Recover the amino acids of this structure.
């Protein structure tokens, strides 16, 4: 059984939240995207207008005005939380902040509203005791950029009800995404664990002087058909983000092997964070 969803609130208008909001609006849902910063809300609204217009030019959106009219942007999301059938949290990746947000949502939202977190590293079981109705919560994990990437991972925690799972699966499918439904929580879920395994092996090969980063990247691209090599990918995502994901997994599991490699830590300590810093595994200064 699914809950009838018409109104959705997305909390956080950053890189993920703004595009997740657009995905819902394009699928026909009345969607509010809320942030704490008016500047971020304004920038998000402008960016999404441009993106939806571009999709319309490419023939991928029939009625851009209708989609935009279903989108509301706000720096005060309390009213939208009261009205939402589904709330998807996509705020800054900090456990305490997310717990505060869910406690507030739990005060405001209808008891039958479904709640999802887009967190990449925080399983919803760590948020469940901050809300009144933990059976209505799960991870609903979109990929970056959410308007483009075709997959949503849905991760129930031990308390998540079947109705909650059925509802988030149904909403995700209506957006046109392919759903990957995990049977249980595991740090990193599926896609990021697979990616992490490739990145870790690439760093091990390089640290043991088996090949250059250029050759390891070439093998991934040309022999395995990956769109980019593991070192190129780390530079694109940000080596600090990759390191953070390792630390988060170590904190969740206590597993020493989850810690970032010394090479990665050295790179981050030197400020070689990747493309955004002009230098990472590769040099982008020229
Ligand atoms: N960036 C990625 O590649 C990616 C991919 C998948 C999932 N995620 C997850 O999505 C979430 C958001 O990531 P992001 O990259 O969009 O981060 P971001 O830093 O770009 O955006 C986070 C936004 O949350 C806002 N925020 C903070 N407190 C808030 C509050 N109380 N109410 C409303 N908004 C608040 C911030 O102002 C900011 O605009 C994180 O949980 C992250 O793990 C990120």
């Amino acid at each position: 059984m699914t809950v009838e969803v018409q109104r959705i609130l997305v909390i956080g208008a950053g890189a993920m939240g703004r595009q997740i909001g657009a995905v819902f609006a394009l699928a026909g849902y009345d969607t509010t995207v809320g942030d704490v910063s008016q500047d971020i809300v304004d920038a998000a609204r402008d960016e999404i207008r441009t993106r939806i217009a571009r999709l319309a030019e490419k023939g991928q959106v029939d009625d851009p005005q209708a989609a935009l009219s279903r989108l509301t942007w706000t720096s005060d999301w309390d009213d939208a939380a009261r009205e939402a059938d589904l709330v998807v949290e996509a705020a800054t990746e900090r456990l305490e902040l997310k717990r505060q947000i869910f406690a507030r949502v739990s005060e405001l939202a209808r008891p039958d509203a479904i709640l999802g977190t887009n967190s990449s590293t925080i399983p919803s079981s760590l948020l469940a005791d901050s809300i009144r109705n933990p059976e209505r919560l799960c991870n609903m994990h979109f990929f970056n950029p959410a308007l483009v990437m075709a997959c949503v991972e849905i991760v129930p925690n031990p308390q998540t009800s079947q109705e909650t799972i059925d509802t988030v699966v149904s909403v995700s499918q209506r957006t046109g995404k392919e759903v990957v439904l995990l049977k249980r929580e595991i740090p990193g879920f599926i896609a990021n664990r697979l990616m992490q395994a490739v990145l870790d092996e690439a760093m091990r090969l390089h640290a043991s002087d088996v090949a250059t980063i250029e050759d390891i990247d070439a093998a991934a691209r040309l022999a395995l058909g990956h769109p980019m090599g593991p070192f190129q990918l780390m530079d694109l995502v940000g080596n600090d983000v990759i390191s953070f994901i390792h630390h988060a997994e170590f904190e969740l599991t206590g597993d020493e092997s989850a810690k970032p490699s010394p090479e990665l830590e050295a790179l981050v300590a030197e400020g070689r964070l990747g493309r955004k810093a002009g230098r990472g595994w590769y040099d982008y200064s020229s």
In short: The chain has eleven helices and eight strands. The pocket of nicotinamide-adenine-dinucleotide is lined by residues 11-17, 34-37, 40, 90-93, 97, 101, 118-120, 142-144 (CB under 6 Å). The longest strand covers residues 137-142. The chain has two domains: 7-181, 192-277.
